[in-house]
Amino acid sequence: MKVQLHGQKIRFRISEDELAALVSGDEVTNVTRFDAVQWVQSIRVGVSDAPALALTAVGLRLQLPRALLEAYAARLPSRKGVELRFPADGADERTLEVEFEVDVRDSVRVRRGVDPGPGSA
Questions:
Q1: How far is the C-alpha of 68 from the C-alpha of 43, rounded, in Å?
Q2: pTM of the model
């Protein structure tokens, strides 16, 4: 998983293998460690019909509804991810925009059996 942060935007980009793990019920995580501190970003399928983003003691956890995840997976490969908005205490200026996507090059390779070529890691 790759996580990109910029201002009020977070982008989670995963591989096809990580998508398969999510669909099967596993949690996908990314851990950054420095000295004795670690920051964990995780994604899992939630039981709710609505997406959720939680700040934990050590990081962030994104929960996606199964129906949303499966509908997105059915349209892959695609450059367009799932865009979510999480307002903080009803304040628009503190709304956190979250994008969840599967790496399009990995999707093309896996779903269409196409080699994306050199330099496409």
A1: 13
A2: 0.86
